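Preliminary data (for renewal application), pyridoxal-5'-phosphate complex.
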Amino acid sequence: MESIYLDHNATTPVDPEVVQAMLPYLSGNFGNASSVHAFGRDGKVALENAREMIASVINCEPSELYFTSGGTESDNIAVLGTAHRFKGRKDHIIVGAAEHHAVLEPAEYLAHSEDFKLDLLPVDGEGFSSPEQLKELVTDRTALVSVMHANNETGTVQDIGGLVEVTHAKNCLFHTDAVQSTGKIKVDVKRMGVDMATITAHKIYGPKGIGGLYVRAGVKVSPLFYGGAHEKKRRPGTENVAGAVGFAKALEIAMRRQEDDFRNMSELADYFIDKVIGSIPDVMLNGPRKNRIPQTMNMSFNGVEGESVVLALDLKGIACSSGSACTSGATEPSHVLKAMGAEAVSAQGAIRFSLGRSTTRDQLDYVISVLPEVIGKLREMSPFYSQQK
Ligand SMILES: Cc1ncc(COP(=O)(O)O)c(C=O)c1O
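Predicted structure:
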């Protein structure tokens, strides 16, 4: 049985070209980039070349890009680091209701433990937030507004510009989590006007454990770690040279392929969505048909548990994910879908299929062929499913 991987928003395999670019920095050129000798200088040159390459893609100065261990850390630095910087002067933070937990949880921590007031910026039924709604929430006590660029569960691509304008009008800082958009669609931090942006390598065929935070020149955020002068003291710790080299190579490849990949995945996604909706009753697409990263398809199959579908498809060699997080045995519907107003019964039955470069129409046809039976059987056993005719 061929394995079909449709969970590319969770992570991707490392591109062989990326592996080749990284290998020298794992053994021969292993120097510590902060050492002054030749081994160290080799590492430093590779690190700075990688920084330059990535900065040029997102349109910032290399000096504005800090390497981190990934998206989670970058989000935490942006949220906690900004709040700590403004402590005593500002005590309010706004984050999108559909943010990744890497933004939501540090924001909730600030609210529970550091007396910050937290507001969630609502999203509409397709996952979009409006500048008008933000205007009602933002005040001159607000330290930070954080709204993601592309949503990891639904693919919704937010129009960041209008939100930034409202934020800056109150002299507040704006951060965007661009983990799911970087390399897949255009991400230009200057054009978006953001003060900070989070990026990571492993969603675009780069290695895990390396990411970055863009911090606009002049913006000050407190570090989370202490103990070294690396990354201008914003992120101390021996630099991950091989990771940075891999990240730069992965982004270079992603940019080279961006247009073709976008077109191919749009075609495949449209095909898949239409076929699934056409062959199974009571299915809906969560998120917009347009203004989305096309590789993300989130669908609700009413009356079934998403986790059960994931397990049943796994037995058939298909890897996908459910939008729900399994906490102490109980499946909680996704906070993203709840924020979009989905009813519990459809949020509970949500499945995310995320496409990648290796996805073929034959693979999707196989999924399309097995899905009706899988869903049908689970619905037969479901006390919640009563088909309305
Ligand atoms: C939108 C978003 N932000 C942040 C993260 C966390 O990134 P990392 O896995 O690099 O820590 C993810 C990963 O799932 C994500 O999808």
